[in-house]
User: Fold these one by one.
Assistant:
Number 1:
Amino acid sequence: MIEVNNTTKAKINSKKIIKIVEAFIKFYKLKNFDVSVAIVSDKVMHDMNLTYRGLDKTTDVLSFCGLNEIIISHEQIKRQAKELKKGIESELIFILVHGLLHLIGREDNKEVLRLAMIAEGEKFLKKCGII
């Protein structure tokens, strides 16, 4: 089961999120892989980042492997999209895939790993015809 919970007032294309998660599950041949995606405010994300990572700031995405849960800050996505001169939906999709990669064990705590995750995410999006 794939669940999308938008707790913000932003208009989110939940069907597209579900389609991308389904493509990810198929691409990586994952079995019994349920995923919950929550779109939250900066305040909620800041509080969660402080609670779970000890970082007193907001972030774009948090992934909880044991729960298969991805939390995305819509406000942070908007800022990043503007900074990167990308569309908001495009940045949201990229960050969603980044969160999914964390759920299957990918790490980005070192620069080389972060760059590898970016490349892997882009490869998935291209092979599935999403970008």
Number 2:
Amino acid sequence: MLYKDIASAYHSFLTSVAWDNPLYVKAITEGKNKFLSNAWLSLSKSSKYHKAEFITKSALAKIENGDYKNLVFEHMIPKQKFIQKPCEELAKKGELTLEFVEDILTRYWHLATITKEEDSMLDRLSIPSDWDKKDIFIRYKIAQIDLIENPYYFWNSSEFNG
């Protein structure tokens, strides 16, 4: 249900864009770039750091101490390149399907809560050219950052499963 709701909203948004109007497309750039994240964040009232599937032990320790400073809500797979760009290209051609959006979100929409220090160790937007397109942890492995399942992950909460 979770990815279906986001996929449906994103599909509706992208298929309603006037792609043939350059000024319109330029004017909604910020909205296009933030649409998925804003939709995801709106799914529950919990902290955004609880809306990431994975977390580092150091970020978890900070949260457990009530310290949310210097934490980063991070896209494990670069959203622009692996989700937004392919979806927008198909939408521009009138070929974007809901099934495509659901599939790409299921594969690449993965988030982690990490510290700012750990974030500085990551190659922000790059993935190795020989990436198998399956290992969502590749950037973290390269940076030697260990992720664990986030015990605060909102999808596991009673808000969704009560």
